[in-house]
Amino acid sequence: MDFRQIFGADPETQASAPGRVNLLGEHTDYNDGFVLPTAIPQRTTVQLSFSPDRQHHFYSQELDELVSISDRDGTPQGFASYIFGCIQLLQQEGHTIPPLNLHVTSSVPIGSGLSSSAALEVATLRAVRSRLNLEIDDVRIAQLGQQAEIQYAGVECGIMDQMASSLADTEHMLFLDTRTLERRVLPFPAGAELLVVDSGVPRTLAGSGYNQRRAECEEAARQLGVKALRDITDPQAVETLPEPLRRRARHVITENNRVLEVLQGVSAQRFGDLMNASHTSLRDDYEVSVTALDTLVAILQQTPGVFGARLTGAGFGGATVALVASGQAKAIAQDVLARYNRKGYAGRTLVPEN
Ligand code: ADP
Ligand code: MG
């Protein structure tokens, strides 16, 4: 149902924000490291108006769910927690936010690792900024979105997703130093485009696995005497660590180095090699892959026109990203999915959109 059907009048403003896919630099953002996401074409749109009563009313078209809540109520469950968190954090920054009618609609796949949560936060903050003429810049919007997700939705995320949704576009890669927030907009390697395929396997263990990896990285950094693993560039430095910390740290260090190599300017071929190496590292050193992802990545890597492929997102299921020859993504996707499906899986193409 659209805004008018839910709230009985037209919206006063609207804003949108894209999902993202991370090309290189996985599990590095909570190690103060480097990431290389890009925006995807799918977006989340938030429409809003002032609420006529004392409550906020949040509606999601995808979930067909309406949540009514006042600022004095506790944090709601589910999708409303992200929106409620954004509003609370704006108030804590000193902005006065009146009760809002807020309508969410999105083409970003929810829960596939393309960051529908960050798109929801950034679109919400942009819509509120627009309606109230707030002076907050795009970096601050990303930071508030991240804090909403951590403090109100209870997800210990890094800053990558929100920075990508707030600052990246679909035509470029966004290099981001997650410690300093220094960033650079880079062109895609010449002659290449993106292909994102969902493995069809839900990320069931992602939450617990993610927290465990975070703890292992913190412990590895502590034993190596650095603030974060980002402070180490030589993979040999991990050799003194006990397992599994040695391999966890080695993934983070080599992954950071792969992202930094891209800054030098690399060909599509070399970029693909770095993606393949990233997958091997995520599979063997970081141990966040699963058989379905390994199968799909292997099929992609064997397909002509594919420069490289790897799992993207936290792992344990979810999506893969590949760099492929320009103009060939759709044809390659068809071929790859047919072979993947013959092995008993049900994948689907997420980018480019059908
Ligand atoms: P991802 O960000 O990879 O898509 P997450 O688990 O981080 O996966 O975020 C998904 C959650 O974000 C959903 O469970 C829901 O609470 C919220 N969300 C995202 N998009 C929407 C939407 N369009 N409508 C309602 N909730 C949404
Ligand atoms: Mg998310």
Characterization of the model:
The chain is an alpha+beta fold. The chain folds into two domains: 3-184, Ribosomal Protein S5, domain 2 (2-Layer Sandwich); 189-351, 2-Layer Sandwich (Alpha-Beta Plaits). The protein is 39% helix and 23% strand. It has helices at 3-7, 79-92, 116-132, 138-151, 160-167, 206-224, 245-263, 268-284, 291-302, 329-342; strands spanning 13-24, 34-50, 56-60, 65-69, 100-106, 172-177, 183-187, 192-198, 306-311, 319-325, 348-351. Strands 1, 2, 3, 4, 5, 6 and 7 form a seven-stranded mixed beta sheet that branches. A four-stranded antiparallel beta sheet has the order 9-10-8-11. Helix 3 crosses helix 4 and helix 3 (116-132) packs across helix 5. The chain is globular, with a radius of gyration of 21 Å. The structure holds adenosine-5'-diphosphate (ADP) and magnesium ion. Adenosine-5'-diphosphate (ADP) is lined by residues 44, 60, 62-63, 78-79, 82, 104, 106, 110-117, 120.
Question: Could you give a short description of this structure?
Answer:
The protein is an alpha+beta fold and 354 residues long. It has ten helices and eleven strands.
Order of helices and strands: HEEEEHEHHHEEEHHHHEEHE
CATH architecture of the largest domain: 2-Layer Sandwich
What is the number of strand segments?
Answer: 11
Sheet with the most strands? Answer: 7 strands, mixed
Strand content: 15-25%
Q: Return the CATH topology of the largest domain.
A: Ribosomal Protein S5, domain 2
Structural class: alpha+beta
* CATH top level class name of the largest domain: Alpha Beta
Average of per-residue pLDDT values: 96
Residues in helices, as a percent range? 25-40%
Gyration radius, in Å: 21 Å
